[in-house]
Amino acid sequence: PPLAVGSSTSPQHLTIPGRYCSLIAPAAMASIPTIDFSPFMLDEGCMVGGSPTASQRQVADQINSGMCEHGFLYVDNLGIEEEEVVAAFDAGRALFEGPSCDGSKLAQRTPQTNMGYV
């Protein structure tokens, strides 16, 4: 089944296409926290140059905790449409599975600039 990110009642609910879910171990998916980013989608607090609201601080704490404890997290209510997610996954697959793909040409070669593929 596809991986549901966030709640099904959320207007920003995203579903990763099932063909990509096999790339992620189910047990790993279950333990990764989902963070509701909606407090940062409002015109208030730090989004308009003010101090963060209590909700924004709570989200920041959840992000920090999720990254420290798991190294990964899901973000819900980020304003990204499902079509954009599908297009990004399709583009990545086309790049790395295409007949002319040579990942070594994309890799960073020095420890100072090694950030994966660019």
Explain what the structure shows.
With 118 residues, the protein is an alpha+beta fold. Helices cover 36% and strands 10% of the residues. It is built from four helices and four strands. It has helices at 18-21, 26-31, 54-69, 82-97, and strands at residues 3-5, 14-16, 34-36, 74-76. The strands form two sheets. The chain has a two-stranded antiparallel sheet with strand order 1-2. Strands 3-4 form a two-stranded parallel sheet. A hairpin with an 8-residue loop joins strand 1 and strand 2.
Average pLDDT, all residues = 74
Summarize the amount of helix as a percent range: 25-40%
Round the Cα radius of gyration to an integer and report it: 17 Å
**What is the SS-derived class?**
alpha+beta
Q: Percent of residues in beta strands?
A: 5-15%
Q: What's the number of extended β-strand segments? A: 4
- Form type: elongated
Write down the secondary-structure element order. Answer: EEHHEHEH
Structure annotation, total helices: 4
Q: Which sequence of strands runs across the widest sheet?
A: 1-2
Taking pLDDT < 50 over at least 5 consecutive residues as the criterion, the unreliable ranges are 1-15
- Sheet with the most strands? 2 strands, antiparallel
Distance between the termini: 30 Å
Helix-strand blueprint:
Blueprint: E1 3-5, E2 14-16, H1 18-21, H2 26-31, E3 34-36, H3 54-69, E4 74-76, H4 82-97
Parallel strand pairs: 3-4
Antiparallel strand pairs: 1-2
